[in-house]
Design a protein that fits this description.
- Helices cover 64% and strands 4% of the residues.
- With 607 residues, it is mainly alpha-helical.
- The protein folds into 2 domains: 425 residues, no CATH class; 121 residues, no CATH class.
- A 5-stranded mixed β-sheet has the order 2-1-3-5-4, with helices on both faces.
- Helix 7 crosses helix 8, helix 12 runs antiparallel to helix 13 and helix 12 packs parallel to helix 21.
- It is globular.
- The chain starts with a helix and ends with a strand.
Amino acid sequence: MALLSVCAFLSISYLTGSLLLKKISFPGAAVLKILLGLDIITLLVFISAWSGILQTAIIKPVFYLAFLLSASYLTYKNFILTKNRIDKYSQISAPVFLMLLPGLFILGRSLSLPTSWDELTYQLAVPERWINAGRICFFQDNPYSGFPSFASVNFHLMLATGGIAAPRTLVLILWLLSMGTLYILLRPGLSKWTAGILTFSFGIGNAVMMSAGSAYADIFILVHFSAMLLISRHMIFKAPTVRGLIIFGVFAGAAASVKLTGIVLAASLIVLFYSRKKGVMEMTRRFSICIAAFAFTSFLFYLRPFLETGNPFYPYCQNLFSGNAISIEMSRYHHMIGSVKFGINGLVGFFTSPFLISFESSVFDGDYGLQFLVILSLAIATLILTIKSKTPWLKPFFALVLILYAFWFFSSQQARFLMPAVFLVFYLSKFSLKTIPLPQRNILLGGILILTVISAPYNIFKDCLLSWQNVFGTIKNEDYLYSSTGPGYLKAVDIINRKLPENTKLMLIFENRGFYIRRNYVLGTPFVQEKFFTPPDKLSSSADILETLRRNNISHLLIGLSENDPDRIAAYVDRSANFAKLLGLLIQDGKLKTIWQDEGFGVYEVK
């Protein structure tokens, strides 16, 4: 069902985009059509689901009716009106197969059960709660529901129409589109094998595969950025059309609507500033059209959190929009998650991180492989050629790399957040690579391929193989989930789903993964959210906790271990120590009746 749902979504998106881009036929045009259609559908679904017009019960029939109509039209147009056209679509070269090879492994993860902390806490958990609530809305106990939500709207649609495997499958398809776009960008001036090897070297990177194998939002940003580069390549040597500028702005707005790290892609406008028609008026025209399209696309996605929380960037920057000390405490915690746990600060870090991110996975929560050292060196060589004015039109692209990198360095230094900049570096590397004589170039490509194989994320490949075993039934769902979610969690979920009454209102404390819980639940972990127990060090007695539970009609608690949380920060764990002690007193006093305890988890009834 997941594959059918994603194919349906692509079919509808492609037809929608084709109706608006009828005369575009250059390499990669299909990517632009799919993305433009996807953006339009996402915006329509968002508006209708936020307003409550699009009810969960009618999403599936409307969706598949649209698929039937679009598939019929596209089949008639492409395979009936044009004879032997299917042969064209069935051809695939060895280099293209190489660059898409990681996708065959990732497909196993896409079709298996979601397991990552982010997926079970908010990437999939929030859209699932929207489905249960009947509309897109903000949950005060889960701040991630206040995100701009472009990716979440897509996950909401996929869950409603294709089940729990559909969101991951959609992410994989977007990864494939990104890889195809990189190949198209690299191909002019390079052989098929050269472009294929470089694309393979990017797509198999730890950070890229990590993002492609889970329902993460980062691939949505990457695919839109790749499409923007594709547009810029066709507009760079001639005056851009109004339609091209609008599409460029729409894609930038869509990327910004995924999450805050996508806003920086608005800086991509500078790649359009190289022109044979130099002049302030021409630059102003381009800028105005793109910014208008950017604002139109992203406005509603930031309007929702503003109307529901008073802060368009919720849960970040609360100090700018609220005087509530509790809310600011929560916001500070989320800023700390992104800035404290990963990366290297200071001047030394700024100049060494581009090289260290090739292999220091533990520092950046991912890496791009040793091959990136070679790619980065080639990009630096391209920069030297650009400074010597052999390729002056590339200057804005290098300025964009610097902007993307600086934004990443001073915000959150997780490797997957740097994907657009790394993607652009791979593209820029081609311009110096193609100046190298063919024999030396082939030796260099062999070295890149060897480094790629050495640096391949074999831990991810191992997980992909286990996922395929789960898909084919040789590993049971229970065993697969247990191995991926850690001791105790699956048992706790099973107890909750089997033994607690249907009308239970459950609170999760020191455990935020609610996706598999089939009872009404809220998050109560301090600092993660502002509704309950934040800040916990202000609680004076266990009676305060009990009063909050009763006032909010909480009937049961699931208490886990803070050590399970990958986002935990030592200082905040220490600040929650007294809160944990007070919970222990409630258990000792019988105010929280023990239903089940094992492997660091406990389920309790509020008396």
